[in-house]
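#onboarding

Welcome to the new folks! Below is a worked example of what a typical request in this channel looks like: someone posts a single protein sequence, and someone else replies with the predicted structure as tokens. Don't worry about understanding the tokens yet, we'll cover that in week two.

Example request:
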Amino acid sequence: MTNYGLFVGLVTLDLIYLAESAPQNNQKIVATDYTVAAGGPATNAAVTFSYLGNRATLLGVVGSHPMTQLIRTDLATYQVAIADLHPSTTTAVPVSSIIVSESTGERAVVSINAVKTQASSSSLPPDILQNIDIVLIDGHQMAVGSKIAQMAKAKNIPIAIDGGSWKAGFEEILPFVDYAICSNNFYPPGCDTAAEVFAYLSAFHIPHIAITHGEQPIEYLSCGNWGVVDVPQISVVDTLGAGDIFHGAFCHYILQETFTDALAQAAKVAAKACQFFGTRRWMEVE
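Example response:
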């Protein structure tokens, strides 16, 4: 059965370089590989969800600047539909420049995210949630995300958040969330430890919470039960987008598995992605 997912948030154009290391001040370096792709947490999650056999719609600001053609072509390749919150804008989409270090797979990123491309919730299409089975919100379009969360909750559509980092306004979305999947860089106000993050999110009555720790086990709190899920140990080529890919895979598996099984399966997909340069090449091999 085909599932339908709505992915709400950031759309960027990612310029990704593979190099020995990130440059120092006044240093020029030559990359050994290079790729261009649409990026952003919700975007990469949508691509992953689609790749796993579902139908994904990306809700974000794209517009009509000439460089958006690169984004549209990439998303069309992976059969991700675009619901554009501001189709008439000629403002350039946010561009992320990313350097992946060959020896470690770690990445350095320069981006302005969605700070200049915030959309109003009044621009939402009225039927945006029609036939949707799950919603993922990455927090980069907070006004729209908040409205979508309320609408989805009223329709009993499960809501997941990508908690890559804390963003002001998340507290308005959290009361509606079913699955809070956070990185170990996600620290709400007053939180300094994972235990405090679990307590903060639990106060919003979120039933399922997970915190990823890179190559270390995933911590979770599911209906009051705490535990860990091991992640595959691999030789890392590139960690770029691993969290986004994890979220997209989670949205796929949670519609058919238990919470802990969905975390484990999503970790396998993200681990595979980390063995390839860029955010797309892992899908080109079986």
